[in-house]
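# nightly structure sweep
# worker-07 picked up a monomer target from the shared queue
# config: single-sequence mode, recycle default, output format = structure tokens
# input follows
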Amino acid sequence: MQYPRIVLICISLIVVGLSSAVLGQVSRPSNPIATGEEKPGHVEVLPAVTGASRSLQEATLRSFIEQQKTLGWIEVDEEKASSVERAFGASSPVVKTMPDVESLLNVLRVVPSSVTRTMLASGRLDGVRTAGGFVDGGWTGLVRLFTLPDVGRVILEEYDYVAAGSHYQIPSETIDSYVNGYPMIYRAFKAPSGKSYTEFVWFTKAKQFRLMVDGLVMKSDDIYADVEQLLATLL
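# output follows
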């Protein structure tokens, strides 16, 4: 029996350097999770933690949430703040960058979402990569690299969490809003040098998306409205 993966979306773990392929801590339980019915994957919102922090992880998470509220971003080191820039040069013999989505269709389990009615349609596609896990003959994730006019470098990641059998557990404190009934997490990261990037993580009934924009995207910026339209459009 294949046990479902449990993915805890935790800002403290994201910031200290997990790969872009998976957000959060992934573990395989020693026993199957009793859900009352067989579910290939689902998203669960965890209740807010009240009272004193019970662990360093909780304390760190609260610190990051407070920074986001007061500063408008989370303070990180230069390497973390350069995540988008580094991703554009991260091709390797194992994970090759291909010119377009069509080049990977025969090895994908995830069905690529159309971006034709979004802000990404105005940009240049700089490459695509497989991501996630390899399940039943195909990769469950896809990464697309774009350069947009007046915006710069943007990364779109999508993962079929149903095909992967992933169960996402999201602390309610990290949720910024809901898109089509599913949670969305908005965070900006900035180094002392001023280097920064912004990410949006959201879900649909079968996919988890992550949009990374090089630079700070504040809610008052014009581009934020374009991002909101993209979040609601992708399926």
